[in-house]
Write a structure and sequence with these properties.
The complex is a heterodimer of chains A (406) and B (282). Chain A is an alpha/beta fold. Chain A has 2 domains: 239 residues, P-loop containing nucleotide triphosphate hydrolases (Rossmann fold), CATH 3.40.50; 124 residues, Roll (CBS-domain), CATH 3.10.580.10. Chain A contains 17 helices and 16 strands. In chain A, the strands form 4 sheets. A 6-stranded mixed beta sheet of chain A has the order 6-7-8-3-9-10, with helices on both faces. In chain A, strands 2-1-4-5 form a 4-stranded antiparallel beta sheet, sandwiched between helices. In chain A, helix 5 packs across helix 6 and helix 6 crosses helix 7. Chain B has a single domain, classed as MetI-like fold (Orthogonal Bundle). Chain B contains 13 helices and no strands. In chain B, helix 4 packs antiparallel against helix 5, helix 6 runs antiparallel to helix 7 and helix 9 runs antiparallel to helix 11. The longest helix of chain B is centred in the C-terminal third of the chain and has 35 residues. Chain B is flat. Chains A and B meet through helix 4, strand 6 and helix 5 of A and helix 10 and helix 11 of B.
Chain lengths: 406, 282
């Protein structure tokens, strides 16, 4: 999952803090003294929205900010485009500090670099779908012909070409959110801020939208900051996830890091109910395979190895470790009695293969009803083996899955 | 002096009179031309309208009624019958005078009221200051406004307009404020997030979204202006109100009733017109 290219961060937040209330200064002092959100609320009447959030977002990644309601995630995303004024800290976009900008520069950054998609779509009900998508360009006074063309392109991207002249209320929720997405894309911003963009959609539509977003992102290479309260969604979309609690970021990491090494009890409780089968892949649960070489070994060696390892079948590879098939103990002992020397005569090739990225859910289907272990193969080369016991252990939450292979 | 205030009473009435006198004197340079030119303009407007034959007016009103009520005949039929009845009773000219007064008073109320409403919606301080003034303006008996109106503008149409302005503007201000404040926060955020300027936000999002509410306020304003126009006849504003007033003074029940019916008919037509202009937008 590591990035090949390390580019400069596109967004960098440093100690970003927001205190709502009449006396933010006092609240900040209390924060410095290490008081909790509740204590500060009791003492000063001020609410700490976001508490010293620092993070960086790399170009082209999907950065998910996740937390329960009230954790400050929606405030945080609004600090990024300064819909809410930060009390303290800085937010750098391409190296420019948004927190210190005057109104005019801020508008410029919002117009050129930041697009936003809202939880309840926030489409203008008095405008047609096309006019909604045009909005960002319209306020930049782009000439009408050009902006209509761009708006049509954006609608095409989200698959709504035919609906340009409809009013938003005539569309379903999923379609409305596509319009919202198209509106954000029409400006061709560098960063998309998506505030619980799919939370108001029903689960099936939501899955579709998630898939489409991933597709869109892979073709358009936009940087996406995605806010959600749903861990499954976060794990599905995120290259990296920042977990928030009481206004603070408690952990930032890849989905695997968060699941496997929760930073504290809070994160652990959070990830407890995650359906691990959706997150773990073959790479996590595979074991080093016992093999024999088809070019060097015969049935006798095969039998010997199986006996040593206490297994009833063994995988067969060639010198380059390309997977050839497997032999069973029964066949091997039969062959030895008949003095057969060549493994090829008893080689069975109906072995199930998966690759390292195959999810546990799929492995479950594959391994069910297969008498022999499943081979994990990469470019024909055998890299590991999955036995049924490991699958069950992983589903049961056994933390002894090996991350090194991931 | 303080002691006098306790024994003799605080001279609020005298003070108010003094202030009014001062305003009359100081702003005479403003009030006099308004009285003259605006008065002339109003006379001109109502005289021009009176030149149009009643039949033509009826046809035009009927056509507009037909289209704004969604091609239904009810309002159009009512308008024609109502206007014909007023003409039949010989009150056509009074009707036109009253209508001119209402029209101009309402237009001015909207022109003044909407921007004030916007200001209130945008600034908490402005809201805190203006709201009690509006309450004051609306609860003070309407007759009271006639007195300074006469002081400033003499008698006739112009003071009538002035009094209606004070009496009828508050709903427009209130509803504009309310309408803009009610615009969904996400929509406002959306317009800001895409980099709208304040003016763009107002013109492209807030006002269009608040339109229905503002129109409801304007409808109220027009109705209040109509009711004020009747009261304003006491200071010489012409129209149906004057007929009501003179029948009252002469105890002529019949004439008063007919003139009153004329006002009711006008009120219903204006009310339906402004309301359907609103509902058509939604």
């Amino acid at each position: 999952m590591s990035k090949e290219v390390k580019a400069l961060p596109i967004i960098e937040a440093k100690n970003l803090t927001k205190v709502f209330g009449k006396n933010p200064k006092q609240a900040l002092d209390h924060l410095d003294q290490g008081l909790s959100k509740e204590e500060i609320l009791k003492k000063t009447g001020s609410t700490v929205g976001v508490n010293r959030a620092s993070f960086t977002v790399e170009p082209g990644e999907i950065f998910v900010i996740m937390g329960l309601s009230g954790s400050g995630k929606s405030t945080l995303v609004r600090l990024i485009n300064r819909l809410i004024e930060p009390t303290q800290g800085s937010i750098l976009i391409d190296g420019q500090d948004l927190a210190k900008m005057d109104k005019k520069d801020l508008r410029q950054v919002r117009r050129e670099k930041l697009g936003m998609v809202f939880q309840r779509f926030a489409l203008f009900p008095n405008r047609t779908v096309l006019k909604n998508v045009e909005y960002g360009l319209e306020i930049q006074k782009v000439d009408p012909e050009k902006r209509t063309k761009k708006a049509h392109e954006a609608l095409k991207l989200v698959g709504l070409e035919g609906y340009a002249e409809q009013k938003p209320e005539q569309l379903s929720g999923g379609m409305q959110q596509r319009v919202g997405l198209a509106r954000a894309l029409a400006n061709d911003p560098e960063v998309l801020l998506m505030d619980e963009a799919f939370s108001a959609l029903d689960p099936l539509i939501r899955k579709d939208m998630q898939d489409e977003l991933i597709d869109l992102q892979s073709t358009m290479k936009k940087t996406i900051i995605f806010i959600t309260h749903d861990l499954d969604e976060a794990l599905r979309l995120g290259d990296r996830i920042a977990l928030m609690k009481d206004g603070s970021i408690v952990q930032i990491g890849t989905p695997e890091e968060i699941l496997m090494n929760p930073a504290n009890d809070y994160v652990e409780r959070f990830v407890e109910d995650v359906d691990r089968s959706k997150v773990l892949t073959a790479g996590h649960i595979m074991k080093r395979p016992e093999t024999i070489n088809i070019e060097k070994h015969g049935p006798r060696v095969a039998l010997e190895r199986m006996k040593e390892a206490g297994i009833s079948s063994i995988l067969v590879v060639d010198s380059k470790r390309n997977l050839k098939g497997y032999v069973t103990a029964d066949d091997a002992s039969e062959a030895r009695k008949k003095e057969v020397r060549d493994l090829k005569e008893i080689l069975q090739t109906d072995i199930k293969q998966v690759n390292k990225e195959t999810s546990m859910q799929e492995i479950f289907n594959v391994i069910n009803g297969s008498p022999v272990p499943v081979a994990v193969v990469e470019n024909e080369r055998l890299v590991g083996i999955i036995v049924r016991g490991a699958v069950i252990a992983a589903l049961a939450g056994d933390s002894e899955v090996n991350l090194e292979h991931a | 002096m303080l002691k006098e205030w306790f024994t003799e009473g605080i001279p609020i009435a005298e003070g108010t009179e003094w202030v009014t006198d001062q305003i009359t004197d100081i702003f005479a340079f403003l009030f006099d031309p308004i009285k003259e030119h605006f008065g002339n303009f109003m006379d001109f407007a109502s005289e021009t309208l009176m030149l149009v034959p009643p039949v033509v007016v009826m046809i035009i009103v009927a056509l507009i009624a037909f289209f704004i009520s969604g091609k239904k005949f009810g309002l159009a039929a009512f308008s024609v019958v109502g206007l014909w009845l007023i003409d039949n009773q010989g009150y056509w000219e009074h009707l036109i005078s009253t209508f001119t007064l209402v029209l101009i008073a309402s237009l001015l109320s909207v022109i003044i009221g909407v921007p004030i409403g916007i200001l209130m919606a945008k600034s908490k301080t402005a809201e805190a200051i203006i709201k009690p003034i509006l309450d004051f303006m609306q609860t003070m008996p309407a007759f009271v406004y006639l007195i300074p109106a006469v002081a400033f503008f003499g008698i006739g149409m112009v003071p009538g307009i002035f009094a209606s302005l004070i009496f009828a503007t508050p709903p427009t201000v209130r509803f504009t404020n309310l309408g803009i404040r009610q615009v969904s926060k996400e929509l406002v955020e959306a317009s800001e997030a895409f980099g709208s300027t304040g003016t763009q936000k107002l013109l492209k999002v807030e006002l269009p979204m608040a339109k229905a509410t503002i129109m409801a306020g304007i409808n109220q304003t027009v109705m209040l202006a109509l009711s004020m126009v009747v009261i304003a006849s006491m200071i010489g504003a012409p129209g149906l109100g004057r007929e009501v007033l003179s029948s009252l003074q002469r105890a002529q029940v019949g004439t008063g009733f007919v003139a009153g019916i004329g006002i009711v008919i006008l009120a219903i037509i204006i009310d339906r017109f402004t309301q359907s202009a609103n509902s058509k937008e939604q």
